[in-house]
Specification:
This protein has 517 residues and is an alpha/beta fold. The chain is built from 16 helices and 17 strands. The strands form three sheets. An eight-stranded parallel beta barrel has the order 8-9-12-13-14-15-16-17, surrounded by six helices. Strands 1-7-5-6-4-2-3 form a seven-stranded mixed sheet. It has a two-stranded antiparallel ribbon with strand order 10-11. It starts with a helix and ends in a 15-residue tail after the last helix. The longest helix has 21 residues, at 2-22. The chain folds into two domains: 23-164, Chitobiase/beta-hexosaminidase domain 2-like (Chitobiase, domain 2, 2-Layer Sandwich), CATH 3.30.379; 170-481 and 497-503, Alpha-Beta Barrel (TIM Barrel), CATH 3.20.20.80. Bound molecules: acetamide (ACM). Residues 330-331, 361, 378 line the site of acetamide (ACM).
Length: 517
């Protein structure tokens, strides 16, 4: 029995060795691969690696957290390949398979991906870098790798070396879950899609006039009443604290930081409808399901308002490991400036008390700013520049380029166009560091795309507005400006089409892109 097993196992080992050494290899050119975001440096060695049945995924066991990244890679590759892809600890580089390790790569997010005929090595300075190397490897494999059932191989990739690291530390997307609510599963799918393109922040706009979407235990009517509806009068919803923590964890596993936003002192009708005492006249407002802006304000000279903000910031900060708390601050048209300024200054103090850094829309630059405060430029460059003069850094989200609810053109059946029509080329052809005179690269922490959801009611609509523009924004945030060029990008983007299809993404097929099916 023992002998038979021995012979059998020798045959299997021998068989797979013969298989890989005799395999016909294609001469593949790594520099021609349509990667998005385009990497900082690619060197080709003009052969190929084939992922085969017996391949294993090794992780350097001395590096904390690599096991989780290795397991995610296996989970990603198993459905389409049908292979077992065992995940195994290693103390040194193996001779074949896929090996995740640390040591190379710039900064926290940089990585080196080295592909030889026998071995794929992904090395990052930190696990985040290894995770991004995995995303690059994923895009080097045929698009059918994204399928959820077994597909025909071969799973062949070009050999060579990619050295890569991001231009900006903050690469984000904002989702408005207040105007229309999106549940946990939708947010998780979005997180999965963001990770493919190396986006590392998801900003959730958790409150607005039309709805309050996060459970606050000390102010329960915010969700019990203020979360009931959404734009159009349909049923709203909210995240329980357990669900919010689940989203935070799911995102963190994909190296995405959740940035919670509670908009104040305007955009607060849902809170004003839930608690009469937050209004200057002590009268609760009606729930609002329209789409006007700028009509609501917290009563800025009432102490109870600051007690409310303190409780909200405390409860959310306790569940949020990330460094930021977004206080909104936009379009407070009915808050007199002499009330707005001290309000924003006090709100910053409350956020600092709970150990978080403030982000606010560009209007907050009218107030005094704490040293770590970040101004999110969406409308007025003069506000962002005012913020810079006060020592702030800027998060770049110009509505004319990065607002994903802006229509592509006059025929788009969803969205709005108050800032601009934003076709796929316009969304791509700009550079944060040169967009506005007076805002330089050193002033910028990164780029964020924003999807406001007045007209967006479900995932299909969301994906149509987000894809493919977000993919271009992801490249703007990650890749060096000198490597970006629309004519070349549109060809790389066209080759994402089968990947979008395999992922079930309902994207906008812009006529400006030579899509391949
Ligand atoms: C905004 O679009 N009101 C920030």
């Amino acid at each position: 029995m023992k002998t038979t097993l021995f012979i059998l196992s020798m045959m299997i080992i021998g068989g797979s060795a013969i298989f890989s050494s005799c395999q016909q290899r294609t001469k593949k050119d790594l520099t021609k691969e349509p990667l998005i975001p385009v990497p900082a440096s690619v060197t080709a060695t003009n052969s190929s690696f084939v992922l085969d049945e017996g391949a294993m995924i090794y992780f350097d066991e001395s590096s904390k957290d690599l096991k989780a990244v290795a397991e995610q890679l296996a989970i990603l590759l198993r459905p389409a390949t049908g292979y077992k892809l065992e995940v195994v600890p290693a103390t040194a580089a193996p001779s074949e398979g896929i090996y995740l390790t640390t040591g190379a790569g710039e900064g926290d997010e940089g990585y080196e991906l080295t592909i030889t005929e026998d071995l794929v090595t992904i090395s990052g300075a930190a696990p985040a870098g290894v995770f991004y190397g995995v995303q690059t490897l994923r895009q080097l494999l045929p698009p059918s790798i994204e399928a959820s059932s077994v597909q025909q191989g071969p799973w062949e990739i070009a050999t060579g070396t990619i050295k890569d690291s991001p231009e900006y530390n903050y690469r984000g997307m904002m989702l408005d879950v207040a105007r229309h609510f999106f549940g946990v599963d939708d947010v998780k799918r979005l997180i999965d899609l963001l990770a493919i393109y190396k986006i590392n922040h998801l900003h959730l706009h958790l409150s607005d006039d039309q709805g309050w979407r996060i459970e606050i235990k000390s102010w329960p009517k915010l969700t019990a009443h203020g979360g009931k509806l959404e734009v159009g009068g349909t049923e709203g919803g909210f995240y329980t604290q357990e669900q919010y923590k689940d989203i935070v964890k799911y995102a963190a596993d994909r190296f995405i930081t959740i940035v919670p936003e509670i908009d104040m002192p305007g955009h607060t009708n849902a809170a004003l409808a839930s608690y009469a005492e937050l209004n200057c006249d002590n009268k609760a407002r009606e729930l609002y399901t329209g789409t006007k802006v700028g009509f609501s304000t917290l009563c800025t000279d009432k102490e109870v308002v600051y007690k409310f903000i303190d409780d909200v910031v405390r409860e959310i900060s306790e569940m949020t490991p990330g460094p930021y708390f977004h206080i909104g601050g936009d379009e407070s048209h009915v808050t007199p400036m002499e009330d707005y300024i001290p309000f924003i200054e006090r709100a910053q103090d409350i956020v600092a008390k709970y150990g978080k850094k403030v982000i606010g829309w560009d209007e907050i630059a009218h107030a005094g700013l704490k040293p770590n405060t970040i101004v999110q430029y969406w409308a007025k460059a003069e506000n962002a520049i005012r913020g810079i003069e006060k020592g702030a850094k800027v998060l770049i989200s110009p509505a004319t380029k990065t607002y994903l609810d802006m229509q592509y053109d006059s025929t788009t059946h969803l969205g709005l166009h108050w800032a601009a029509y934003v076709e796929v080329d316009s969304a791509y052809m700009w550079d944060p560091a040169t967009l506005e005179k007076g805002i330089t690269k050193d002033d910028i922490i990164g780029v964020e795309s924003a999807l406001w959801t007045e007209t967006i009611t479900n995932m299909e609509e969301l994906e149509y507005m987000v894809f493919p523009r977000l993919v271009g924004h992801a490249e703007i945030g990650w890749s060096p400006a000198g490597k970006r060029n629309w004519d070349e990008y549109k060809v790389r983007l066209s080759k994402q089409a089968p990947r979008f299809k395999a992922l079930g993404i309902d994207y906008y097929k812009s006529k400006l892109v030579p899509w391949i099916e």
